[in-house]
Design brief:
The protein is α+β, with helices and mostly antiparallel strands. Helix 7 packs across helix 9. It folds into 3 domains: about 100 residues, no CATH class; about 100 residues, OB fold (Dihydrolipoamide Acetyltransferase, E2P) (Beta Barrel); about 325 residues, Bira Bifunctional Protein, Domain 2 (BirA Bifunctional Protein, domain 2, 2-Layer Sandwich), CATH 3.30.930.10. The two termini are about 45 Å apart. The chain contains 16 helices and 18 strands. Belongs to the class-II aminoacyl-tRNA synthetase family. GO terms for molecular function: asparagine-tRNA ligase activity; ATP binding; nucleic acid binding. It catalyses: tRNA(Asn) + L-asparagine + ATP = L-asparaginyl-tRNA(Asn) + AMP + diphosphate + H(+). Its EC number is 6.1.1.22.
Length: about 600
C-alpha cells in the first residue's frame, strides 16, 4: 500500500517531512473576520479586496519570531476602510497586538427602518494576543532584538529580591520555563507596594517598562519597570508552592497548585505539543477526526472493567445514603434497567475503536482522540481510571500498514517536541531523566525492529534473568518482559512484537491462518514497555461471529458491528495509544499520575 523504505521490516507509512515551526494559518484567521463583516452588514454590499486573504502573516503558535515577523505589516481593505497592523507602541498598555479588519457600520436611519439593532451595539472588539514571555525570550537572540521596546508583562511572581537601590522580581507567565527578571526602582509607579510587603511569591502582577540588556550572566534581557500593578495578592506565609523542593506525592494533593512548578509547567507544555502534533500528523495525511461517544453500551475490550452510568441511584451532592429498597428492582431482586435513563445498562467508554471502525468503513481513514475510562482497581505507576486515547483506523489496510502508520506517527511526534520544546526538554534532561534527549533522538532516527511473539518468548526463556512473572508461550507479556526486550536485547531501539496468541487478545482481531494467533502488534519502547497496541480487524463475518460466541459475549450487543461486515466489508486495521504513557515516555516522568492534569485513581477523585 505504501512504498518500501530501507531498513524497515514493514511497509513505510507515507509521510510528509516535518513542517517548520513557523506554519502560516492565514486562511483560517483571515476568513473568520471577513465572513463576519459580510454577515453583519449584508445590506451594505461591502467589497472585499482579494488581497485581503494573501497579506496576512501569522505568528507561530508557540515560538518567537524575529522582530520583523513579530510585528507583521498587512493591509486589509473592506469597502473604504483601511487597516494596518500595529507596531509595538505605547498605546493600549503597550501590548503587542495585531489589527484585524474593521466591520463597516450602517447608518442609524437604515437600522431603524429595517428594525435592526444599530451596528454600534453589535461591536465587541477584537481579540488581542497577549505578549508572552516566550515571545520575548524565545527567539534566537533570547530577546536582544527587542531591547528598547516598551511593553507590558503579566504573570506570577516566582521570587522577590530587594537590594538598596532596586528590587528584582522574577515573573513567569507559564508560556515557557524561563522567568523574566524585572527591575523595580523607587521611581517606578507602584514601588510602594514592595516597601509595604504586598508583593510576594505567588502574587499576580502586571509590569510596564522597556526591555534592556541584562548586566547579569543568567539572562540576556530584563525589564526596566516604569509601573507595577498588583492584580492578585498572595500570603507568603501560607502559599503552598515555595522555592523549596516539594515531592511529587505531595504535589498530587495540591493538584490545583502544581502547574506553577517548573516540572509540571514543562509537562503541560510538552503534553500540549504532543496533542497538537498528533492532530497535525493525521490531518496532514487526510485522516478525519471522529468524536466517539463517552457513554456506550458496548465493551470494546470484553474485560468487563467498566464504570456504570445510571440514574437508578438518586443524584446527591450531599453526604447522604439511599436506602436500597428505593432503587428500582425486578421481582427477582435485580436492578430494573428498564427504569434507568437509557432503558438498559450503559457505561463510560473504554475505547472509541469500535465507533471509529464505523466511520472508517465510510470515510476510509479516521482517528479518535479523547478520554476513556477503566474501572481497574490498580494502584501502579502505569494505570489510571481516566486517560486519553489516540485511536486511528485505516480502511483497505493490513497489519503491515498499521505498523508503518504507528512507527511513523511516533517518530513524527518525537521529532516535533525535540524541535519545538527545546527548553523544556533540556530541563527534563537535566532534572528528570539524564540522557532523555539522546534516547528520544534514537527513537526518531533508528529503524524499528520487528519480531513475533513466539520469538520474543524464546528470547525471554533463554534470558539469565529472574523475572517476577514467569514466561511461557500463551502468557501476556508484562512490563518487565517488554522493557527487557527493548532495553537489554535491542539496546534502546523500539520493538514491534506481532502475532500474539488469540486467547490473550480481543475478539475483533483478525485470526491468522494457523488458527492459534491473531494479526496483532504491540510497539514497545524503553522505560515504558508497551506504548502502542494495534491489529488488523476481523473483516470476515462468519469468523467474527464465531469468535464472539467463543468468548461468551452477548451477540445482540454487537449487531451494528456485525452489520459493518454484512454490507461492504473491507480489510482494515488500527491501533490505540495511551496518551499519558506517551507523555511519560517523552518527559521521563516515572509515574503516570504526573502525566495528566488531574489523575483519577482508586479512592481519588479530587479536583
Amino acid at each position: 500500500m505504501y512504498p518500501k523504505t530501507k531498513g524497515l521490516c514493514f511497509n513505510h507509512f507515507s509521510s510528509h517531512p516535518l513542517s517548520p515551526a513557523r506554519v502560516l494559518f492565514s486562511a483560517f484567521f483571515v476568513a473568520r473576520p471577513l465572513h463576519l463583516a459580510l454577515l453583519c452588514n449584508s445590506r451594505t454590499k461591502a467589497s472585499i479586496s482579494p488581497a485581503a486573504s494573501s497579506t496576512f502573516v501569522s505568528r507561530t503558535r508557540a515560538r518567537c519570531l524575529p522582530h520583523s515577523l513579530l510585528l507583521p505589516q498587512r493591509e486589509v481593505t473592506v469597502k473604504n476602510i483601511h487597516c494596518t497592523g500595529a507596531k509595538l507602541a505605547e498605546t493600549d498598555a503597550n501590548v503587542v497586538e495585531e489589527s484585524l479588519p474593521s466591520i463597516p457600520t450602517t447608518s442609524s436611519s437604515s437600522s431603524e427602518e429595517d428594525g435592526e439593532v444599530p451596528s454600534s451595539h453589535l461591536s465587541i472588539g477584537h481579540f488581542k494576543k497577549r505578549l508572552r514571555i516566550a515571545d520575548i525570550k524565545g527567539g534566537p537572540k533570547e530577546g536582544l532584538e527587542l531591547v528598547g521596546e516598551q511593553m507590558m508583562v503579566r504573570g506570577w511572581v516566582r521570587t522577590c529580591r530587594s537590594q538598596k537601590a532596586f528590587t528584582f522580581l522574577e515573573v513567569n507567565d507559564g508560556s515557557c520555563l524561563s522567568n523574566l527578571q524585572c527591575i523595580i526602582g523607587p521611581e517606578a509607579e507602584g514601588f510602594g507596594m514592595i516597601e509595604a510587603g504586598s508583593i510576594s511569591t505567588g502574587a499576580s502582577v502586571a509590569i510596564n517598562g522597556h526591555l534592556v540588556e541584562s548586566q547579569g550572566s543568567k539572562q540576556k534581557v530584563e525589564l526596566k519597570a516604569s509601573k507595577l500593578q498588583l492584580i492578585g495578592g498572595s500570603d507568603a506565609t501560607t502559599y503552598p508552592v515555595q522555592k523549596k523542593k516539594l515531592s511529587r506525592e505531595y504535589l498530587r494533593t495540591i493538584a490545583h497548585m502544581r502547574p506553577r512548578t517548573n516540572t509540571f509547567g514543562a509537562v503541560s507544555r510538552v503534553r500540549n505539543a504532543l496533542a497538537y502534533a498528533t492532530h497535525k500528523f493525521f490531518q496532514d495525511r487526510g485522516f478525519i477526526w471522529v468524536a466517539s461517544p463517552i457513554i456506550t453500551a458496548s465493551d470494546c475490550e470484553g474485560a468487563g472493567e467498566q464504570f456504570c452510568v445510571t440514574t437508578l441511584v438518586p443524584n446527591s451532592t450531599k453526604d447522604s445514603s439511599t436506602p436500597i429498597q428505593k432503587i428500582p428492582s425486578t421481582k427477582e431482586g435485580l436492578l430494573d434497567w428498564s427504569q434507568d435513563f437509557f432503558g438498559r445498562p450503559a457505561f463510560l467508554t473504554v475505547s472509541g475503536q469500535l465507533n471509529a471502525e464505523i466511520y472508517a468503513t465510510a470515510l476510509s481513514d479516521v482517528y479518535t482522540f479523547g478520554p476513556t475510562f477503566r474501572a481497574e482497581n490498580s494502584n501502579t505507576t502505569r494505570h489510571l481510571a481516566e486517560f486519553w486515547m489516540i485511536e486511528p483506523e485505516l480502511a483497505f489496510a493490513d497489519l503491515k500498514d498499521d505498523m508503518a502508520c504507528a512507527s511513523t506517527y511516533l517518530q513524527y511526534v518525537v521529532r516535533y517536541i525535540l524541535e519545538e520544546c527545546k527548553e523544556d526538554m533540556q530541563f527534563f534532561d537535566q532534572w528528570i531523566e539524564k540522557g532523555i534527549i539522546a534516547r528520544l533522538n534514537d527513537v526518531a532516527e533508528k529503524d524499528f525492529r520487528q519480531i513475533t511473539y513466539t520469538d520474543a518468548v524464546d528470547i525471554l526463556l533463554k534470558a539469565k534473568t529472574n523475572f517476577e512473572f514467569p514466561v511461557k508461550w500463551g502468557c501476556d507479556l508484562q512490563s518487565e518482559h517488554e522493557r527487557y526486550l527493548t532495553e537489554k536485547v535491542f539496546k534502546g531501539t523500539p520493538l514491534i512484537v506481532t502475532d500474539y496468541p488469540k486467547e490473550i487478545k480481543a475478539f475483533y482481531m483478525r485470526q491468522n491462518d494457523d488458527g492459534k494467533t491473531v494479526a496483532a502488534m504491540d510497539l514497545l519502547v524503553p522505560r515504558v514497555g508497551e506504548l502502542i497496541g494495534g491489529s488488523q480487524r476481523e473483516e470476515r463475518l462468519d469468523v467474527l461471529e464465531k469468535r464472539i460466541e467463543e468468548l461468551g459475549l452477548e451477540k445482540a450487543s454487537y449487531w451494528w458491528y456485525l452489520d459493518l461486515r454484512r454490507y461492504g466489508t473491507v480489510p482494515h486495521a488500527g491501533f490505540g495509544l495511551g496518551f499519558e504513557r506517551l507523555v511519560q515516555f517523552a518527559t521521563g516522568i516515572d509515574n503516570i499520575r504526573d502525566a495528566i492534569p488531574f489523575p483519577r485513581t482508586p479512592g481519588s477523585a479530587e479536583f
